[in-house]
Hints:
Layout: E1 14-15, H1 28-33, H2 41-44, H3 55-58, E2 69-72, E3 80-83, E4 86-87, H4 89-93, H5 98-101, E5 105-110, E6 119-122, H6 123-139, E7 148-153, H7 158-169, E8 172-177, H8 182-192, E9 196-200, E10 202-205, E11 208-211, H9 214-225, E12 232-236, E13 254-256, H10 257-261, E14 274-275, E15 279-285, E16 293-298, H11 300-312, E17 321-324, H12 331-343, E18 347-351, H13 362-370, E19 374-377, H14 379-388, E20 402-405, H15 412-422, E21 428-431, E22 466-469, E23 482-488, E24 498-499, H16 503-510, E25 528-536, E26 542-547, E27 552-554, E28 557-559, H17 561-568, E29 574-584, E30 588-597, H18 605-618, E31 627-630, H19 644-651, H20 666-676
Parallel strand pairs: 5-18, 7-8, 7-9, 8-15, 9-12, 12-13, 17-18, 17-19, 19-20, 20-21, 30-31
Antiparallel strand pairs: 1-23, 2-3, 4-14, 5-6, 10-11, 15-16, 16-24, 22-23, 23-25, 25-26, 27-28, 29-30
Helix pairs in contact: 6-7, 8-9, 11-12, 14-15, 17-18, 19-20
Amino acid sequence: MAEKEVVETSEAQIAVHWQEEGYYYPSTEFVAQANMTDKGIYERFSLDNFPNCYKEYADLLDWYEYWDDILDTSDAPCYKWFKGGKINASYNCIDRHLKDNKNKTAIHFVPEPMDEKYEHITYQELYVRVNEFAALLKDFAGLKRGDRVTLHMPMVPELPITMLACARLGVIHSQVFGGFSGTACADRIVDSGSNVLITMDAYYRSGSLIDHRQNADIAVEHAEKLGQKVDKVLVWQRYAGKYSAKKPMVEGRDFFVNDLLSKYYGARVEPERMNSEDPLFLMYTSGTTGKPKGCQHGTGGYLAYVTGTSKFVQDIHPEDVYWCMADIGWITGHSYIVYGPLANCASTVIYEGVPTYPDAGRSWRIAQDLDVNIFHTAPTAIRALRKIGPDEPAKYNYHFKHMTTVGEPIEPEVWKWYHKEVGKGEAIIVDTWWQTETGGFLCSTLPAITPMKPGSAGPGMPGIHPIIFDDEGNEVPRGSGKAGNICIQNPWPGMFQTIWGDRDRFVDTYFARYCKDPNSKDWRDWPYLTGDAAVEAEDGYYRILGRIDDVINVSGHRLGTKEIESAALVVGEVAEAAVVPVAHDIKGKEPDLYISLKPGFEASDALAKKISDAVCEEIGKIAKPRKVWIVKDMPKTRSGKIMRRVLGALSNKSDVGDVMTLANPEIVEEIRQMVQQ
């Protein structure tokens, strides 16, 4: 087996060994109906036309008053977009559509139990429900413009209703992912200074009705110990009029929303005329270390960016049925289930449960039932569906025109399966790269203009100008086959304004490393550090290699973990791969490779060797895994992400920390016995 030539790299760069894939082109039918077919958009959004180019996105919204400045850099890098403009996000997502589209479905809700009917909420019904709940929040809960409120809710229509009611009042919402513990919820209550918690009694997951209300007691109790008192807990009921949790409500603190709402029947609340730069919401990123960072997203800039990117990248038309399978508890759900699609008058699908319940065909049944034609999910979900139900998509009569992948880089082998089997060879794919902090897409192909390339996120979005630096701050040239730290040269409207209550941490984490002058008010001196490693091909397409922290330095060669995982997935039996660094006396680090197999295949030493050989063949012997561990399943979060941190701790015989919030905590002990015997 010939070893491929190893690219020599300095300590500051990352060796990249994979071959660029070929292009895939959209059909003429897709191009004919696309929202954006003008190749001139890249020129219009060039750095020469920055920041005025973003007026094009802002003009997709309705403003009470136009702005004085498109971009105010006086407090760089805490930028203010469309400063002086007056706007309301709730109005833009609902009210403005009523004249022509009040009878159109805004939200299709799919409950997890198979015997429960789908719920279809029109824009008129959404308007009524948001207004009545906004009146309750204002009158009963005493919430007003600028207050913060913590939401700890599952995937139900009451979640976007709550968010939009908050936005109507100018109340800053902070939604905590429903799968997080009461303690995690408390940390966010304390940091944001919320004194109202909005939750739900129960929800379905994997066929069970989960008692969610119990988390509220833990959250309130824990928050109080840390000095933040919650006065009111508002509890939505999964079944109106019926309480589905075990512990009794706390008198004087806990209230059923369903009981209170009857007093607000017919109420209408005039939307607050918010300053464009006023915060719309906080979204906490849960780092593996340190306290969570509250990313503060503004109103006008954020809404303009998600509306524009939903229209031009997601290609959402009012007549489309659009399903993003993310959870609204993450930024993808905020930007591309709620705010972006609804601002575009889309019909957006919300599914309560897991995509594999009661079997691997569930997603495609929902797609067939609702005639979904735009589908948006993460590589994690795609790999899971490929693993347990590779033949399922072919059994159902649905036709996607467009599919999105989001959340992490997608391996070329998985991309090709997604295109052929899920997209039936018809759908275009946009492989988007972005982050909680960025509000919306940073890199993506524009579906009717730039061709697709498996494994590559594509060029920078119009108006987004990436640059790759090495550790010394030198630019890594395009097409050099060398990677580095990908940064964005310029600000954009969707980017977060600051870390809530911690400007210093905001500057230190995202800007200090490559800042040219800490006193400068010029955006050119403040490149944004994404924290990801990437390589730029000769055609200007970017391939993301994972977090800078995930790079493994083997004998001075910096290898991206994503590349090793992609190489393992070339082996037909492999469903999922996860690479973690293990300390080595001489080499510094070497990779451990964890593998889960597709159904019907058995673990064996021969298969482990085949996988190891494939990595050496694809990348070179420098990347040879220390060990290939074939496990029954990977430790995963409730949203399906593989917890590489846990696997790394097992390989390095260190403390795995709290694993009880995992979807499958029992697997950790099973892997420990295998790895540490």
